[in-house]
């Protein structure tokens, strides 16, 4: 398959024309088309000396030595392709695959509190990160210690050693018959350099036109020895990469603020004025401290002299203070009469991407062993650090889901919370004993302005210190291999690998609940002037939380292959092999409640898991060229797990070539995915799903008046309590899960109408049964809103009441349930590809395109009902509201002159309907769109330009212009993966036009 570079995010939306499908979405090039030069290859020969003839050709998806039969669709990415496209990490290249869809995990999610912070993962065919297998040189890799959404284990793409990657093979077909579990949607195989001779490296830096998103890269590789002439090669390599984090306040326009009035929407700034100049409900989650006497009445700012902590103050009008809704209730019953602080949370605190720093080193020694064998030993180390500052710490709210105890609350004393829960209150007296404080053993509370009157004070606000999150991953990997020929006609290949990941999470600025209660009781924390607190007091309230996690993978594998006999089309090859591997994850909770419901932090999720297993496997493959026009391949694998599960995975494929220019190919296979450690053994895990105001039933909103119940006026009329609303979806331990099973088939053609031009079209259909999933909580949510009994299998926990409507029905806080084997998931679509080359004498034109059309991604439930996600924001919960794109593709064209290469790339991601069937609507019914936006988010097209100048055979200089036309992503007010845009659709386009320049050298 031809080496193509795949770069943008092009996934869904309206259909492209047939021409755009063939050219805007380049195909993976088939094996017979490999004579086409890779688009935009700019690496000088001495700096890329790995083109020597390899004794053993790695064929992804096969255990047989030799060239790829071309039966299964494979896309190959080379470093030359990525250079031509201006892509500076392999992780980015994989994320930009047209076949990557749905719940992919990008680095941008780290800056928004992702479960698997600091990691990146691919989701081929939209089937989630746990259904795509990632390999290093054909061998398994250790899982990232943290799980995607707290339940799906995956391999972190950030652990790829970019400096020694030779190519990336993406097998777009089921491959459990070759590799075992998790290869349902496909396989990403990272192939590293076999040898390197000389010295080569790169220096590179880039930044956006707006002065944000700066990045730098340094690499250096040195090698000696010639395998063919001297019988050995050894090289060492090192790299450094840094990407500067970007905050929302650095972006343009509405992407930087909670105020959506510029696009016709509501003013989401806390206590912001609506389009009528009114304050609509007092926001309780700002950073400035407010108090009120007793348990009722209006709040007042605690320190009027200091004023607002993080925004301007406004004075309510008389109308604000006296206005009632259609039910006759005060809209702003708790609103202060003055010093109402406004706060733009997005501008002040939110992030687009984290700071990322990576460095590492690799070494490899390869040597001939006798006349027919070759051995290698390779070692790698890499450290990745990802960090960002978040919102100020919570003091009034609900603790995360409890593990051993009910969760504690400082916002409500409802019976559903742990004993002792109550609205956070400043006592009249404080004392060193912290209990039973009176005038006799204590003093009047200096933080309580009503203490002299004998009144307690309820307090609102946030700890005025931003939270800080850092993940540091250290990956150690070693591999050994020996391959060759024995008995003159039996090829063998033995490989072993060991990989260990140490992950440290450091969290600072998070409030420890019991310590907060202590300083309130003894008066040692200064709420009036928080800046005057000593560092010791601050550290006591927000102690640094460090959690160490790890994962391991050890594998040994051996294969033997032999030509059995000849058929008219060539020799029949048989391959057999065996493998044993051990994998483990140890990820303790970062926020346990072992010592009680208050002995933990606010807002740090409690998720964690631990487990290990050993897997023994046997597999075989037969390649039969029946006659010149027909190749047949059969393979199968049996896997047995020490945890009791076992599975046999068969596969059959064929390729028919009626004439030289046309090949027809197809495969059928069965596969499986083993339940992840996080699914089977996890502690209670809570993810938060943002609610669209129109998704809350009008009957529930009616308690805030007719205007709030009306879908048209709800965004303006409803209080912040509902318009900034997320439901915690809590998954409980699910130890009795069974493996998911899959059936997949592909059918495709490869057509070469003229020399150097090849088109491919590949249809795929994957059906996954017994899919592990959280049961749809839509019925439980609907029952709560309607005041009906909650369905069996769910537990709905109400949130604290709205302070402005203390006797009203609270919104939902959490919905709890277990994972189940239940649903059938279907993914169906078509991949298109094109490569070509034309020599014009004075210059050469090379073109390459790839595109994927997703026809169906759906879930069928046991009762026969079905949810369809393509071209919408579904599966909403699984994708963080990023949805499922219908089209995704790119088209790269390179013009090579004597010493100059110019590559232009067009990237396309389709638009989508603002609806999601898993959020209660019908298919593409616009049910999630508020009245002030269109039903559809527009498609997104960007263009990139790369110019490289080959000074001589030792130096190349290059300049990238990314997003040349400075197009920002379309506005999406519903997705919650990022603020007002879809981060999977928009990618780095949110930074606007960017530039990067660098130099490569090789001696």
Commentary on this structure:
This protein is mainly beta. It is 8% helix and 41% strand. The chain contains 15 helices and 44 strands. The strands form 8 sheets. It has a 22-stranded antiparallel barrel. It is elongated and about 100 Å long. The two termini are 30 Å apart. The relative contact order is 0.16.
Which range does the strand content fall in? Answer: 35-45%
Please bin the fraction of helical residues: under 10%
Q: How many helices does DSSP assign?
A: 15
Main sheet makeup: 22 strands, antiparallel, barrel
Shape: elongated
Q: How far apart are the first and last residues' alpha carbons, in Å?
A: 30 Å
Strand tally is 44
Q: How large, in whole angstroms, is the Cα Rg?
A: 30 Å
Briefly summarize what is shown.
With 1003 residues, the chain is mostly beta strands.
Characteristic key phrases:
disordered N terminus, 8% helix, 22-stranded antiparallel β-barrel, 5-stranded mixed sheet, single chain, mainly beta
Q: How is the secondary structure organized here?
A:
Layout: H1 18-23, E1 74-78, H2 79-85, H3 90-95, E2 132-136, E3 139-140, E4 165-171, H4 176-179, E5 186-192, E6 198-208, E7 215-224, E8 232-243, E9 246-247, E10 290-293, E11 300-301, E12 313-314, H5 318-322, E13 340-341, H6 345-349, E14 351-353, E15 355-369, E16 373-394, E17 425-426, E18 429-430, E19 443-444, E20 457-460, E21 462-486, E22 490-508, H7 513-522, H8 535-541, E23 545-567, E24 570-587, E25 609-627, E26 630-641, E27 646-659, E28 662-673, H9 677-681, E29 685-690, H10 698-701, H11 706-709, H12 714-717, H13 720-723, E30 726-732, E31 740-754, E32 757-773, H14 778-786, E33 795-798, E34 812-818, E35 820-839, E36 844-860, E37 866-868, E38 887-896, E39 900-909, E40 912-913, E41 936-937, E42 940-950, E43 955-962, H15 983-986, E44 994-1002
């Amino acid at each position: 398959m031809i080496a193509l570079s795949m770069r943008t995010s092009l996934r869904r939306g309206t259909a492209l024309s047939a021409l755009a499908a063939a050219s805007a979405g380049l195909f993976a090039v088939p094996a017979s088309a490999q004579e086409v030069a890779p688009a935009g290859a700019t690496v000088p020969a001495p700096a890329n000396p790995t083109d020597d003839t390899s004794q053993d050709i790695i064929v992804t998806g096969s255990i047989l030595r030799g060239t790829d039969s071309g039966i299964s669709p494979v896309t190959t990415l080379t470093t030359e392709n990525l250079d031509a496209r201006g892509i500076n990490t392999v992780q980015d290249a994989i994320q930009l695959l047209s076949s990557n869809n749905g719940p992919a995990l990008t680095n941008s999610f780290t800056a928004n509190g992702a479960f698997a912070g600091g990691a990146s993962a691919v989701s081929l065919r939209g089937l989630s990160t746990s259904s795509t297998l990632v390999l290093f040189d054909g061998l398994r890799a250790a899982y990232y210690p943290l799980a995607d959404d707290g339940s799906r284990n995956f391999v972190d793409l950030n652990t790829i050693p970019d400096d020694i990657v030779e190519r990336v093979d993406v097998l777009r077909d089921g491959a459990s018959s070759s590799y075992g579990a998790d290869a349902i949607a496909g396989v990403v195989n990272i192939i590293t350099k076999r040898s390197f001779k000389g010295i080569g490296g790169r220096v590179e830096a880039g930044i956006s036109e707006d002065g944000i998103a700066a990045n730098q890269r340094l690499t250096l590789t040195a090698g000696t020895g010639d395998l063919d002439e001297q019988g050995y090669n050894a090289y060492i390599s090192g790299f450094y990469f840094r990407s500067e984090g970007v905050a929302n306040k650095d972006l343009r326009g509405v992407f930087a603020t909670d105020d959506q009035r510029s696009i016709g929407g509501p003013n989401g700034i806390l206590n912001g004025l609506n389009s009528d100049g009114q304050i609509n409900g007092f926001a309780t989650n700002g950073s400035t401290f407010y108090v009120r006497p007793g348990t009722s009445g209006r709040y007042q700012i605690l320190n009027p002299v200091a004023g607002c902590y993080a925004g301007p103050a406004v004075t309510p009008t008389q109308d604000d203070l006296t206005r009632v809704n259609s039910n006759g209730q005060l809209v702003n019953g708790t609103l202060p009469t003055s010093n109402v602080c406004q706060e733009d949370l997005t501008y002040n605190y939110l992030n687009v991407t984290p700071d990322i720093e990576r460095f590492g080193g690799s070494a490899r020694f390869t040597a001939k062993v006798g006349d027919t064998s070759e051995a290698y030993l390779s070692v790698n180390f890499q450290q990745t650090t990802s960090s960002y500052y978040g919102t100020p710490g919570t003091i009034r709210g609900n603790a995360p889901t409890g593990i051993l105890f009910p969760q504690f609350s400082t916002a409500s004393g409802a019976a559903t919370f742990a004993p002792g829960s109550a609205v956070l209150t400043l006592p009249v007296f404080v004392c060193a004993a912290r209990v039973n404080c009176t005038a006799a053993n204590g003093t009047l509370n200096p933080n309580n302005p009503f203490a002299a009157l004998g009144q307690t004070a309820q307090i609102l606000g946030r700890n005025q210190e931003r939270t800080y999150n850092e993940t540091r991953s250290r990956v150690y990997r070693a591999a050994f291999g020996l391959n060759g020929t024995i008995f003159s006609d039996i090829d063998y290949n033995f490989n072993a690998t060991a990989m260990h990941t140490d992950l440290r999470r450091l969290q600072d600025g998070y409030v420890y609940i019991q310590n907060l209660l202590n300083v309130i009781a003894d008066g040692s924390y200064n709420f009036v002037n928080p800046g005057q607190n000593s560092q010791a007091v601050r550290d006591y309230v927000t102690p640094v939380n460090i959690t160490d996690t790890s994962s391991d993978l050890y594998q040994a594998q051996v294969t033997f292959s032999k030509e059995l006999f000849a058929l008219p089309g060539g020799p029949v090859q048989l391959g057999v092999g065996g493998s044993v591997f051990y994998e483990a994850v140890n990820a303790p909770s970062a926020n346990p409640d072992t010592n009680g419901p208050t002995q933990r932090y606010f807002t740090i999720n409690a998720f964690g898991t631990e487990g290990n297993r050993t897997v023994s496997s046997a597999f075989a493959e037969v390649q039969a060229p029946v006659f010149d026009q027909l190749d047949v391949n059969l393979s199968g694998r049996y896997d047995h797990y020490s945890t009791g599960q076992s599975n046999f995975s068969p596969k059959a494929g064929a390729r028919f070539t009626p004439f030289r220019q046309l090949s027809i190919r197809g495969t059928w296979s069965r596969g499986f995915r083993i339940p992840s450690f996080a699914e089977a053994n996890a502690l209670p895990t809570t993810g938060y799903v943002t609610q669209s105001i129109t998704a809350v039933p009008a009957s529930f909103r009616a308690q805030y008046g007719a205007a709030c119940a009306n879908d048209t006026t709800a965004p303006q009329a409803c209080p912040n309590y509902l318009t900034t609303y997320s439901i915690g979806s809590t998954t409980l331990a699910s130890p009795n899960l069974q493996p998911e099973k899959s059936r997949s088939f592909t059918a495709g053609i490869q057509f070469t109408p003229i020399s150097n031009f090849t088109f491919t079209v590949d249809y795929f259909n994957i059906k996954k049964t017994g899919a592990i999933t959280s049961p749809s909580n839509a019925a439980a949510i609907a029952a709560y809103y309607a005041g009906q009994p909650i369905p069996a299998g769910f537990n709905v926990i109400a949130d604290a009441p709205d302070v402005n409507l203390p006797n009203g029905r609270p919104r939902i806080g959490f919905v709890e349930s277990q994972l189940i084997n239940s649903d059938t998931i279907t993914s169906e679509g078509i991949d298109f590809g094109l490569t070509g080359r034309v020599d014009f004498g004075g210059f050469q034109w090379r073109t390459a395109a790839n595109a994927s059309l997703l026809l169906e991604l759906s879930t069928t439930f046991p009762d026969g009902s079905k949810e369809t996600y393509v071209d919408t924001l579904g599966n909403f919960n699984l994708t963080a509201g990023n949805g499922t794109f219908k089209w995704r593709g790119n088209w790269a064209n390179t013009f090579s002159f004597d010493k100059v290469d110019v590559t232009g790339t067009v990237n396309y991601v389709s638009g989508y309907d603002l609806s999601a069937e898993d959020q209660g609507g019908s298919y593409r019914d616009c049910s999630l769109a508020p009245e002030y936006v269109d039903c559809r988010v527009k498609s997104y097209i960007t263009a990139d330009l790369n110019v490289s100048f080959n000074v001589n055979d030792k130096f190349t200089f290059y300049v990238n212009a990314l997003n040349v036309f400075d197009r920002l992503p379309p506005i999406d007010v519903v997705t919650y993966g990022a603020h007002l845009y879809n981060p999977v659709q928009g990618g780095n386009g949110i930074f606007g036009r960017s530039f990067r320049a660098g130099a490569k050298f090789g001696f």
